[in-house]
Amino acid sequence: MSTGIKTAFITGGSKGIGYGVAEALIKQGIRVAVTSRSQGNADEAAQRLNAIKAGYAIGIESDVRNFASQQKAVQTVLDQWGGIDYVIANAGVGHFAPVQELTPEVWLETIEINLNGVFFTAKTTMDALRASKGYFISIASLAGTNFFANASAYNASKFGVVGFTQAMMLDVRKEGIKVSTIMPGSVATEFDNHTVSEKDAWKIQPEDIGQIVVDLIRMPARTLPSKVEVRPSMPA
């Protein structure tokens, strides 16, 4: 049962932006459930987070492309902690190629993870958020309003996330649920098989997105920053 401690559910929370958000929230005394398609990765992330605040993190294996998998993950959190106050729909992939080279398989994977995954996460957590008067935050991208070459699948998925999240905000705000989307530019993560190094120091850091999430949930109840665009202050 709930003990009055707030709880967050973070998809793709074992690394990158998702882990940065989890770390920021746990430092605020908020329990975090982080999901990954790999139970090993989820457990490793939870272990590191519990080193910050013991007993405040759990790792859950879940595939955002699978509605039943998301239902099971959400139920695990409810069984463990009794409620969900914050949902961070973060899981995502990036495949970049011109349309001429883009395969149907890559297109479908991009849409299923980046867009369907946000919808499935919203649907499976809606009752819990309604009960807690909670907050749903999607991690989109500046690519959700700015198209560029070799990114047709990624652009389509992120344009969809922005549109879905903003429409959802209008659907549920009268029920006391807040909804925002964060749209980062270049972030220093392993996204698209990138290896993070000192050369990425100019980029937004995962903990910076974590700070934005903390700032959003600390906003007065009367105020909703529904869409937040964030860029590196000094691009390379």
Automatic annotation (TrEMBL):
<dbReference type="InterPro" id="IPR057326">
    <property type="entry name" value="KR_dom"/>
</dbReference>
<comment type="similarity">
    <text>Belongs to the short-chain dehydrogenases/reductases (SDR) family.</text>
</comment>
<dbReference type="GO" id="GO:0032787">
    <property type="term" value="P:monocarboxylic acid metabolic process"/>
</dbReference>
<dbReference type="InterPro" id="IPR050259">
    <property type="entry name" value="SDR"/>
</dbReference>
<dbReference type="Pfam" id="PF00106">
    <property type="entry name" value="adh_short"/>
</dbReference>
<protein>
    <submittedName>
        <fullName>NADP-dependent 3-hydroxy acid dehydrogenase YdfG</fullName>
    </submittedName>
</protein>
<dbReference type="InterPro" id="IPR020904">
    <property type="entry name" value="Sc_DH/Rdtase_CS"/>
</dbReference>
<feature type="domain" description="Ketoreductase">
    <location>
        <begin position="6"/>
        <end position="191"/>
    </location>
</feature>
<dbReference type="InterPro" id="IPR002347">
    <property type="entry name" value="SDR_fam"/>
</dbReference>
<dbReference type="InterPro" id="IPR036291">
    <property type="entry name" value="NAD(P)-bd_dom_sf"/>
</dbReference>
